[in-house]
Amino acid sequence: MNFASDNWAGASPRIIEALARGADGIAPAYGQDDLTRELKARLADLFGREVGVLFAATGSAANSLALSALSPPYGAVYAYEEAHIVGDEAGAPEFFTQGARLVPIAGAGGKLTPAGLEATLARGSGSGSAIPRPAVLSITQATESGTVYRRGEITALTEIARARGLKVHMDGARFANAFAFLAKADGISPADITWKAGVDALAFGLTKNGALMAEAVLLFEPEKAAELEWLRKRSGHVVSKAWPIAAQFLAMLENDHWLDLARHANAMATALSQGLVAAGHRLGYETQANEVFAVLPKAMIAQLRQAGARLYEWPVHGLPADRLPADDADLVRLVTSFATKGEEVERFLALAG
Amino acid sequence: MNFASDNWAGASPRIIEALARGADGIAPAYGQDDLTRELKARLADLFGREVGVLFAATGSAANSLALSALSPPYGAVYAYEEAHIVGDEAGAPEFFTQGARLVPIAGAGGKLTPAGLEATLARGSGSGSAIPRPAVLSITQATESGTVYRRGEITALTEIARARGLKVHMDGARFANAFAFLAKADGISPADITWKAGVDALAFGLTKNGALMAEAVLLFEPEKAAELEWLRKRSGHVVSKAWPIAAQFLAMLENDHWLDLARHANAMATALSQGLVAAGHRLGYETQANEVFAVLPKAMIAQLRQAGARLYEWPVHGLPADRLPADDADLVRLVTSFATKGEEVERFLALAG
Amino acid sequence: MNFASDNWAGASPRIIEALARGADGIAPAYGQDDLTRELKARLADLFGREVGVLFAATGSAANSLALSALSPPYGAVYAYEEAHIVGDEAGAPEFFTQGARLVPIAGAGGKLTPAGLEATLARGSGSGSAIPRPAVLSITQATESGTVYRRGEITALTEIARARGLKVHMDGARFANAFAFLAKADGISPADITWKAGVDALAFGLTKNGALMAEAVLLFEPEKAAELEWLRKRSGHVVSKAWPIAAQFLAMLENDHWLDLARHANAMATALSQGLVAAGHRLGYETQANEVFAVLPKAMIAQLRQAGARLYEWPVHGLPADRLPADDADLVRLVTSFATKGEEVERFLALAG
Amino acid sequence: MNFASDNWAGASPRIIEALARGADGIAPAYGQDDLTRELKARLADLFGREVGVLFAATGSAANSLALSALSPPYGAVYAYEEAHIVGDEAGAPEFFTQGARLVPIAGAGGKLTPAGLEATLARGSGSGSAIPRPAVLSITQATESGTVYRRGEITALTEIARARGLKVHMDGARFANAFAFLAKADGISPADITWKAGVDALAFGLTKNGALMAEAVLLFEPEKAAELEWLRKRSGHVVSKAWPIAAQFLAMLENDHWLDLARHANAMATALSQGLVAAGHRLGYETQANEVFAVLPKAMIAQLRQAGARLYEWPVHGLPADRLPADDADLVRLVTSFATKGEEVERFLALAG
After folding, report:
1. What is the predicted pLDDT for the residue at C245?
2. Start and end of every Aromatic amino acid beta-eliminating lyase/threonine aldolase domain (chains A, B, C, D) (predicted)?
3. Of the residues A50, C50, C306, D209, which has the maximum number of CB atoms within 10 A of its CB?
4. Which residue stretches of chain D have pLDDT < 50?
């Protein structure tokens, strides 16, 4: 019963097959290989336009590289206060941007709200004011709270940003889960919720979705790729053997394998969520992607752990007052993945009944 | 009627005399001169212990150099949300520290509160949490709101900080005004409200107090001065002719000239403040140093300007609800200085009656 | 006939097998997994002492992370003028160290010489001198010229460095090839040519040796690992799935697979080198590891290319005058790898005869 | 007999008078004052075109700010190996540019040569080469060796730089001495040896020439000033009271006071130089500005010191072989200034006869 994180899961067999195929051959180094070229074309197809594609070893690096392409060193980056770039990347955004400032904004349901963004942007700081120059809005899709921005929610934010000259970054470490959710609900394309919705750069990650390591910055202003390539090189993220990363992405995109895996993870989360609600538990956030936040009695959490469940208690910051756990309870986060088995969910629900 | 800022005022005649004396002579460059040596001894006397003394061209640089001595690049610096380092230094702290993060904290009366500091420090961010490492608490004395931390208020904050391993920085751009206020009220020494109260580094500025340029970092861990000297050199703040800065500091410290000037500025602010209250105006913050924050009708502000008054409307963020200006009014900031004349205050009050 | 580079080769089958084994399981993220733990123990065995182990995505990142652990931002790093950190990493050392300076030094045979190092370190720059503080000596093993420092050559350099308070970094992107050469010749251990020879940090890479991605910083002052971990996290090199990197290292170290692969590559280079000399060609540098530098007629280079040979013309800087190519010739670099086949060498020699 | 450095001299009386005039008044802070505005117009006149003007506290800061306007973080800056930015600024260029690399180039007579510059720019570093991107050529005028680039020498270098897309920086800490020399010899204007000769940014300093602190970056691409202003603010070089710096510059430029002072310093150096040659001593470099480099017997140096002479022994690196001192002699540097008196020169020559 691994619900600790989707990055605890191994990898899809197709990933290993793709690596095995390439291991036998010869490929030019530093991204000059055929697979990388093929992937670039494939991503252009997927997003319906030319994109700059730059691999990175981690989602943190992809996020920070994207931010460094969008913000000057004296810029300010606005993000939801519980965003990964704010709370989980140890200052990587500051390092890559050479000192840009992260400005955390309160929100609702794990998301930024237009009103919250407006209020923060409107605040100056006195006549002699010299705050870092507002430069970037960052949106996480799906959010760290397992919720998903709908197309209209994205554009509501990006329009505010663009009206003030800000660029827009999207942290897509779980873009697959968000897209799988929205594609079902809304009949939309990846373009619709990225560049057509005002996003300038997407950190597109498939590691959590079943790859071993497949992260890339997608620049929807591809003319910025040349400069970012210099920054990427000096950050040590230009791997000598790039083909294994391209091979993983290609295996994922082939026949919508990435979506199949994301749909599976989402479905497991939905089942878990519905079962918990049916058993009378309260949710912290709506379950839309592959994360379930539920309020469970502390004693039950201990029993679940003893039975082998892997899960994390989670900070309640950002939760509305009526969803806060009582003293004898805790908010827990349950993450499903491509590898989650139906039996695991069933067993967990049986214990949490 | 210059109430725009204390850094609009010229300089005390004694400053010019001190410069004139030195201009005739010869002095080794880069701080190896006699006046700099003399000043270091004088500051050790004033603070009752050995201190590391490093000049900087501005208060912003002094603050940021101090922060770079106290925080690693991956550190977090906690400060009141309206602090100068947060809102008015354009990312200098990030630049000098190579990317440390400023974490703004709400407060009351222009000051940090122990509860606010505790709450912020207590917040983590999930199990995989990797926020920048908590490193520094920054306190502004006197505050940007014209209030002054009393000794007990300082220690209440520094004890929380030290219990978590944080170092403490004090922005003393108006330290003179704070000390003049406290010395009168409490019978305390500079040591009592700095290193004896848990402060590790003080950005000590006398520019606003009547010098042309007199800013320094005082390190109460003087063994850190050698490393900070390297950082200072590469930041371009090791002036070739250091004696003029030392000469200004010495002229200020001689016979407590700095305190006389600060007391005058404070007295002018008190007179202004009392006059405005007597005339029925509401204050935004208590007047303790040399800044008055008052709510005035917009029409009156316009008239005052026309009559030659220099002043700024000021953001109301941080003001308690019962002090917020009505729609036809604004919060204004009035700063007095060593050069403010009694007649200026009287004339202003006559117009604002 | 791929002699372009060892990072053009695919990967050893054992690498893929190791990844396949892990793909099926579940492992805690961010390096908390069993394989990473196992590898750390294995590396401690190999080097005969406790070591700090930090993965990175590339050799450039491993080098730069190591340098950032050894040099302050205001430090100077001394290296051979053709070292990879000087000429091929696009300023990564400057980025990771936050601005340390690389000081290139001339040498002989692709190596630093004690005399060259002494002369550079001895040079000051005037009375007011403030060059960045001498901080690190960097040695590449095997060198970019395919030569190998013998134990005595290393200690001759590190003793000079240590006498002046410098730390020592070793770029070991081809450490396997160097060790395979020296182990045969001298009967030495990895410890003998690293920490016992005065090296503080080794960038240990097996990617060129047959892995897909296996690079790590080994700190022989393991107490520095905690701080470097912070720097690594903010550089985006803490991969969420660390076990695949650990699995690759472990597969390599098991039964000395890494040495078998390196010996094969070296043997191929030796065969190539001897064949070229036998055919009357001049070598640029002695062939000790897996790189051959030979002077070939330009017409022959063109013919070899047409026959399918992959190789690079190489800058002659650093070559002694008597080895410089004539006008109708060029210096070429031929790199062999774990995947080089004997027939490739034979075919190349037949054409270059 | 102060020949230690021109920055040991005090200040011209006119500097103090200018400060005294301003001390009495009121002036908007942060460079919004009238004197700063007046100076900008005055500098536009002097250079015959619009210029961006940004003050800095030191020549090091002015140099580094200029470099940060001209080079990306992944850029390379080419300079003479004994340039101040290379050897005396403790890594300030790296700090301000966020990691650009300084590439030192050998020269002759304290100057870069076109051949040396070409050779360095021509050198790549292997096929996978990724040196930092060539970005800036830096020229020092007058040089650290007391020599002066003539107009044709400047354009010979800047044409090479421009042909490769490099920008050009000029370190003008002793621009006054250089211009005083050239204006006499060649009948040229400040424009002729700066922007009309291909220079993009000049660090223009008058501190060594008799001010207390008067340093500025002049941008001949004034549209770059807005961005540099952000970088300057975060470096702590936007002083709150800017008028004292403007006042110093204005006092210097009024009635060519700066040139009178520079001509005096140069004349003193010429007298010293001619006297030493007449006494049979050898010069290290031609005396063109206000520095004399002479080879003196060690015993004589000791006697001069005992008699009160202040001077520095100087590194011989860069000296042609036929000018190197013998074992019992040393190269000394003698710097004259606006404050040097004829009697000091006479007394020195009497002792060195």
Report:
1. 98
2. 3-295
3. D209
4. 125-128
Instruction: Name the nearest CA neighbour of C232 among D8, A85, A58.
Output: A58
Alpha-carbon distance of B319 to B326, in angstroms, equals 13
Write down the pTM of the prediction: 0.96
Q: Does D94 touch chain B (CB under 8 A)?
A: yes
- CA gap C96, C92 in Å, rounded: 6
In a domain, A182, yes or no: yes
Tally the domains of chain A: 2
Contact D30 A128 (CB under 8 A): yes
Range with lowest mean pLDDT among A7-16, C224-233, D115-124: D115-124
Q: Measured between beta carbons, which residues in chain C are less than 8 angstroms from residue A239? A: 57-58, 213
Quick check: B72 contacting A, CB < 8 Å?
no
Identify whether residues B49 and B189 lie together within a single domain. yes
For residue A104, give how far its alpha carbon lies from the nearest alpha carbon of chain D (Å): 21
Q: For residues A56 and A216, is the Cβ–Cβ distance under 8 A?
A: yes
**What are the DSSP calls for C10-62, one per residue?**
---HHHHHHHHHHHTSB--STT-SHHHHHHHHHHHHHHTS--EEEEESSHHHH
- Inside any domain, residue C169: yes
Q: What distance in Å separates the CA atoms of residue B35 and residue B28, rounded to the nearest whole number? A: 10
pLDDT, average across residues C103-127: 87
Same domain (yes/no): B96, B197: yes
Chain B closest-CA separation from residue D118 CA (Å)? 29
Comparing CB atoms, the residue among C74, C99, C234 nearest residue B74 is: C234
Specify whether the CB–CB gap between A170 and A140 falls below 8 A: yes
Taking the Cβ of residue D131 and every Cβ of chain A, the question of whether any pair is shorter than 8 Å is answered with no
Report d(CA C300, CA C314) in Å as an integer. Answer: 15
Residues A77-135: tens digit of each pLDDT: 999 999 999 999 999 999 999 999 999 999 999 999 999 999 999 885 444 458 899 99
Cα separation, A72 vs A75, in Å, equals 5
Helices C114-122/C151-163 angle, 10° precision: 10
- The two three-digit tokens of residue A15, written as one number: 């990933």
Non-local (6+) Cβ contacts of D159 within 8 A are D198
D63, D228 contact by CB (below 8 A): no
**Residue A349: which pLDDT band, with cuts at 50, 70 and 90?**
very high
pLDDT at B125: 43
Q: Do C8 and A15 touch (CB under 8 A)?
A: no
Q: How far is C311 from chain D (nearest CA, A)?
A: 10
Q: What span, in angstroms and rounded, lies between the C-alpha atoms of D169 and C117?
A: 31
For residue D134, the domain's CATH number is 3.40.640.10
Check residue A341 and report its DSSP letter: -
Which H or E element spans position D140? strand D133-140
Q: Are C333 and C147 in contact (CB under 8 A)?
A: no
Q: How far apart are CA D120 and CA D128, in angstroms?
A: 18
Please name the residues in contact with D49: beta carbons below 8 A apart, sequence gap of 6 or more.
D191, D195, D220
Whole-number pLDDT of residue C131: 84
Note the ipTM here: 0.96
Average pLDDT over residues B276-297: 97
- Interval D233-291: pLDDT, tens: 999 999 999 999 999 999 999 999 999 999 999 999 999 999 999 999 999 999 999 99
Residues in chain C: 353
Residue D103 lies in a domain: yes
D292 lies in a domain?
A: yes
Q: Structural domain of residue C107, as residue ranges?
A: 13-255
Asked if D10 reaches chain B (Cβ–Cβ under 8 Å), the answer is yes
Q: Do A233 and C15 touch (CB under 8 A)?
A: no
Kindly report the CATH number assigned to the domain that includes residue C264: 3.90.1150.10
User: Position D287: which residue type?
Assistant: T
Q: Is the dihedral of CA A249, A250, A255, A257 positive or negative?
A: negative
